Amino acid sequence: MSGESTGKIADYRYRKERVGVVVSDKMNKTRVVEIVRLVEHPLYKKVIRRKARYKAHDEKYEAKLGDKVRVVETRPLSKDKRWRIVEILKK
Fold first, then answer.
1. Residue 52 in domain
2. Mean pLDDT across the stretch 45-59?
3. Is residue 26, in this structure, part of any structural domain at all?
């Protein structure tokens, strides 16, 4: 059974982590985090910015607009919310 995790502790090691900027804090306990990554165009080799926006859970309303945060993937918390804010890197 290779590839399968054996326990709860092992699952945490494989969760995706991303760093992004809070672009909206208008919802209750939810922040919209924009994550920018750089990818190379397959044919023309130009570096392109790709943006993705994720709704992230913020239980204590700590993250504010413009903050740089680390988010981690988690179980579905609502229809669109699949990420949780772990720490605020820069206020």
1. yes
2. 97
3. yes
